[in-house]
Amino acid sequence: MTDRPPQSVGRRTVLGAGVGFAMGSVAVAAPVALGGAPIDEGSARGGKVNFPAIHAGTERPDAPPPNQAPPTRRVGFAIMGLGRLALQNILPAFAQCKHARPVALVSGDKDKLRIVAEQYGIPASSCYDYASFDQIKDNPAVDAVYVVLPNALHHDAVLRAARAGKHVLCEKPMATSPEEARSMISACAKAGKKLMIAYRCQYEVYNHELAKRARAGEFGAIQFIDAINTQNQGDPGQWRQKKALAGGGSLPDVGLYCLNTARALLGEEPEEVQASIFSPQDDPRFAEVEATVTFMLRFPSGIIANCATSYSAHEHRSMRVLGSQGHAEIDNAFAYEGQKLRVTRRDGMAEASTELTLGQKNQFSQEIDHMAQCVRSGATPRTPGEEGLQDQIIMAAIYESARSGKPVKLAPMSRPDAFRGPMQPEETS
Ligand code: NDP
């Protein structure tokens, strides 16, 4: 493609003329009006299409057209486990990915495999069940495996994917114990493959913006974080209510978002945790796993995060950061969409609350693209296996504190963001 010379007579002039002729007596003026100044046709430079702004500088700029890689140059993902998250969120999110595409499926259900393969144009030769999964090593289209199985199955699946020579994106919680998490990290390291944990909130624009502002000191010195993630569970027979498959109840499933997001916002690691657990005795949903957990994280800087999670309270997902000079909160902080960020500060003699509207991006697409870019560039993911291991260690300490009724100390970390890789340039703008 060549660049259009400035002020050239372009397609608009021709279209204008066409419209003009069709309109009979008003035709004479139309080509002049439409063809005179082709101001918004865009330009193709450096392999990208761009458009000049059409609004004044007072308006929020539009996002440029996505600069996406051609399908053959995208990182190919196999999706392992065709459950709710895979079918309702992950596979649809690939439509907005710029660097990744789904190329293979793994499922124990032949009918689901056939239907989903047809929907996403995946050939039968790239569909596997759990018995044939290891053959994926011979499929060059697959660069990475995205593990979307019940929690207790992550460990084995990650080990098998690494043995097959594939990079791995693994759903949260990474595992059901620190020991499993360590063995997943070493299996991927031994295979020379990347391991990323799917902490989508670290790739979500509102959470990212709040962390950026908090770290820049916009709210003064942070004193306190308050994070709540609750949902009321149904069917007691589902795997989330079975300890052997889930590893725990509300804590590893939804409480983990409070823990991980507080850690990621501060960049610090807690040095002490204190927790309480409550599960109603007569509720069959909580025969094996816990209902409600509250936990306090004490960070080396003195900041305290108070977190609460429940499988028996109505859905609520909020995150609040309180600093010496202001506070900010995100409604629906851990939800798939619907985030609202409010910042409150003194404004002269008044207290001012501002609600910020950011361009919404699909957080699953953001997270998958991040992994794809790391595979291509060799960079460490923002949320590598070590990030998941740290959460497993802290969750084990939370359970221990609730059992013993005492605070539990954690090993200090020598530097901030001890495990995290960088965000990609296009993710920080
Ligand atoms: P589902 O129960 O909806 O799906 C799990 C799928 O795993 C099943 O459909 C099945 O797929 C496969 N599977 C294989 N073995 C078993 C087994 N023994 N029991 C049940 N399923 C099995 O779960 P979700 O999709 O909601 O959750 C999957 C993972 O994703 C979990 O780790 C969860 O924590 C995580 N998750 C993350 C979210 C996020 O926002 N990041 C949100 C929701 C979940 P098949 O029939 O194809 O074999």
Task: Give an overview of the whole structure.
This protein is of the alpha/beta class. It is built from 12 helices and 17 strands. A 9-stranded mixed β-sheet has the order 16-15-14-13-9-12-11-10-17. Strands 5-4-3-6-7-8 form a 6-stranded parallel β-sheet, sandwiched between helices. α5 (154-163) packs parallel to α6 and α7 (205-215) packs across α9. It is globular, with a radius of gyration of 25 Å.
Q: What is the number of domains?
A: 3
Small-molecule binders? NADPH dihydro-nicotinamide-adenine-dinucleotide phosphate
Radius of gyration: 25 Å
Order of helices and strands: HHEEEHEHEEHEHEHEHHEEEEEEEHHEH
Order the strands across the largest sheet as they lie in space.
16-15-14-13-9-12-11-10-17
User: Structural class of the secondary structure composition?
Assistant: alpha/beta
Uncertain segments: 1-33
Distance between the termini: 28 Å
CATH superfamily of the largest domain: Dihydrodipicolinate Reductase, domain 2
* Average pLDDT reading: 91
Tally of alpha and pi helices: 12
Major beta sheet, specifics?
9 strands, mixed
Secondary structure: number of strands? 17
CATH topology of the largest domain: Dihydrodipicolinate Reductase, domain 2
Beta-sheet strand percentage? Answer: 15-25%
In the CATH scheme, the class of the largest domain would be: Alpha Beta
Structural shape? globular
Query: Which CATH-level-2 architecture of the largest domain?
Result: 2-Layer Sandwich
Q: Give helix % range.
A: 25-40%
